[in-house]
């Protein structure tokens, strides 16, 4: 089976570099010139793209392969797929983005399934930074696909000596873990940026995980999925590392500093989407609500902490 990666940002390029260990990979980019000229990505300085990677800006050419990985920002995924005229029947479509679509309230697997129902949708998610994958550092991810037989095929195709994939059929849990942990990372970054300390961060991570699990259960996701790589594992990474863009945004908000608007931070839009869902369903998602208000400038970090700490006392 042949592989194409759509999106030549840091993560998509890193995946292409890792997968090139297994054979030829097609990397689709909007602008191919930076990659073709030096065989290097400005997002991954110092790393040369192997010869096994073919770079193209031709969408139709990249769509010829059997397994298509979409490393497209979550809020752009639906629009990107609408540009593809083919129904992609018989192909495996693997989402490599995390979040909840503001327009539809769907996750990446939901978007793929709704847009291309004749293809098989899956998601690749978990605790990972692009630079680590590109450097060949050991990384473990979740590959979730509702059809386990197809999931096995994709698992073997996308696993490399340094990239270990664990298989699941719980696509809902996998996509929710990846989406919601970004919201919690913003909250943790804001707490640290405001100087509230490691204990506050630990509390936010713990209560954030409870909030993630509660919402996932309402969508019939499995508890073990949330406790795995795509949930707890990704939460631990993004809430504690300065390399996380969501955590960096939180730090900037906590420090009352400007943040580069050109940097894609999926957790901000996801928090807004989750806040709408909470209102519509009546679910209690206090951290999602707080982060939505914080990222929209409607409240300060002090306001948020006051709101969270003044919630009614209850059993854990």
UniProtKB/TrEMBL annotation:
TM ranges: none
Q: Do you know which InterPro entries this protein is assigned to?
A: 6-PGluconate_DH-like_C_sf, 6PGD_dom2, G3P_DH_NAD-dep, G3P_DH_NAD-dep_C, G3P_DH_NAD-dep_N, NAD(P)-bd_dom_sf
Residues of the active site are 181 (proton acceptor)
Spell out the family assignment given in the record's similarity comment.
Belongs to the NAD-dependent glycerol-3-phosphate dehydrogenase family.
Q: Which HAMAP family match?
A: NAD_Glyc3P_dehydrog
Which protein are we looking at?
Answer: Glycerol-3-phosphate dehydrogenase [NAD(P)+]
Highest taxon of the lineage: Bacteria
Catalytic activity field: sn-glycerol 3-phosphate + NADP(+) = dihydroxyacetone phosphate + NADPH + H(+); sn-glycerol 3-phosphate + NAD(+) = dihydroxyacetone phosphate + NADH + H(+)
Q: In which pathway does it act?
A: Membrane lipid metabolism; glycerophospholipid metabolism
Q: Per UniProt, where does sn-glycerol 3-phosphate bind?
A: 98, 126, 128, 181, 234, 244-246
**Which residues make up the binding site for NADPH?**
11, 30, 98, 130, 245, 266
Give UniProt keywords alphabetically. Cytoplasm, Lipid biosynthesis, Lipid metabolism, NAD, NADP, Nucleotide-binding, Oxidoreductase, Phospholipid biosynthesis, Phospholipid metabolism
Q: Which Gene3D superfamilies match?
A: N-(1-d-carboxylethyl)-l-norvaline Dehydrogenase, domain 2, NAD(P)-binding Rossmann-like Domain
Its Gene Ontology biological processes? carbohydrate metabolic process; glycerol-3-phosphate biosynthetic process; glycerol-3-phosphate catabolic process; glycerophospholipid metabolic process; phospholipid biosynthetic process
């Amino acid at each position: 089976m042949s592989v194409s990666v759509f999106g030549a940002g840091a993560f998509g390029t890193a995946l292409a570099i890792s997968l090139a260990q297994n054979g030829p990979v097609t990397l689709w980019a909007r602008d191919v010139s930076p990659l073709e000229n030096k065989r290097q990505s400005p997002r991954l300085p110092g790393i040369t793209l192997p010869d096994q990677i073919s770079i193209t800006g031709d969408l139709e050419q990249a769509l010829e392969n059997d397994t298509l990985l979409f490393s497209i920002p979550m809020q752009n995924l639906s629009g990107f797929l609408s540009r593809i005229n083919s129904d992609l029947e018989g192909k495996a479509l693997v989402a490599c983005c995390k979040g909840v679509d503001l327009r539809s309230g769907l996750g990446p697997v939901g978007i793929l399934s709704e847009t291309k129902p004749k293809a098989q949708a899956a998601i690749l998610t978990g605790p990972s930074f692009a630079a680590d994958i590109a450097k060949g550092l050991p990384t473990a991810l979740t590959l979730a696909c509702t059809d386990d037989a197809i999931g096995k095929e994709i698992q073997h195709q996308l696993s490399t000596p340094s990239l270990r994939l664990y298989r699941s059929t719980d696509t809902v849990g996998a996509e929710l873990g990846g989406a919601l942990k970004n919201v919690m990372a913003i909250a943790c970054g804001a707490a640290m940026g405001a100087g509230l300390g490691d204990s506050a961060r630990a509390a936010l991570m713990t209560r954030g995980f409870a909030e993630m699990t509660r919402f996932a259960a309402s969508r019939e996701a499995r508890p073990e999925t949330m406790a795995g790589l795509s949930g707890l594992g990704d939460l631990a990474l993004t809430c504690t590392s300065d390399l996380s863009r969501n955590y960096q945004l939180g730090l900037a908000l906590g420090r009352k500093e400007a943040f580069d608007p050109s940097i894609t931070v999926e957790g901000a839009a996801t928090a807004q989407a989750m806040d709408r869902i909470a209102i519509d369903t009546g679910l209690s998602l206090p951290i999602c609500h707080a982060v939505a208000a914080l990222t929209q400038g409607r409240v300060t970090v002090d306001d948020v902490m006051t709101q969270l700490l003044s919630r009614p006392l209850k059993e854990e």
